Amino acid sequence: MKLLVIRFSALGDVAMTVPVIDAVARTWPQAEITVLSRPFVQPLFARMPANVRFRGVDLDAYKGLGGLFRLYRELKKENAYEAVADLHDVLRTRVLRFLFRLGGLRTAHIDKGRKGRKALVRPEHKIRKQLPTSFQRYADVFRRLGLPAEVHFRSIYEGGQGETRLFADVAGKPDGTDWIGFAPFAAHRGKQLPENTARSLIRLLARRPGTHLFLFGGKADAPTLEQWARGLSPVTVVAGKLKLEQELALMSHLKLMVSMDSANMHLASLAGTPVVSVWGATHPLAGFMGWNQRTEWAVQTDTLACRPCSIFGNKPCLRGDYACLARLTAEDILYKISLILNKNNHA
To answer: Domain for residue 310, yes or no?
Structure first.
């Protein structure tokens, strides 16, 4: 089967496709799989089995219905696809899916479980139950196309680590200390720690014996992180200094990553690194926990009746004070860090 797999954004959601696509490719080596996504995510798929290829697309060059029809014709000309797996299910992927279906191809798309999500985050009478994970939802798409697979993914490095040469100029080389990453930012207020909590954790980790702390984020976050790290050692700001391939390699050498419910949680998971994930307005029950991560490593408060109030953290706080994040302390996070480090030391 020649299969086209579509998932354009966001980075964390694209990252969550990796364990499933890897499993399908290994289970069905006769399948020819093409992953269609934005060019910058290509490093996520660089170590896939040989029957997977990546096709980047600049969506700005294919705007509107006319642009999507042109993209459809290009894809059809490039490869005689037999089926389409839509792992995104947004307007542009629905249009592409429709065009391929008119051309006689089998298609399947993700069921996002909107009814269950609404019940989980509604203001009153919430139904707090574990929803299917994104990994399960993605796997269901392939199953409906006749490609079921058990996912036994370890890391993009297959249990190993990335090459140190990729990040050594910025981060140095492993030296026997505990390398810990911290990504304190998120796309939405409902998923981001208050500044005083984040800075307190940085200071506590900087004082921890035998620890080297790395601060992750986007290029725009770098000045803020540099300010927070000023005068603290050993703390290295890598935000904005590494490309995705380099970040993944560095993450594979960390003892653990501390991340909000954001893309960095998923990137570290792909690198096979334990993650202390921090949750505010969102909740692991929605199905977005990182691959192979444990709920007991998550930092969250379950004492608020209003939580969770958002699937993606983008809704204004009903209370107005973001208590779900404000009540979390640096010490809460440090405790979870100690659980992982003690586990690793006794492994």
So the answer is: yes
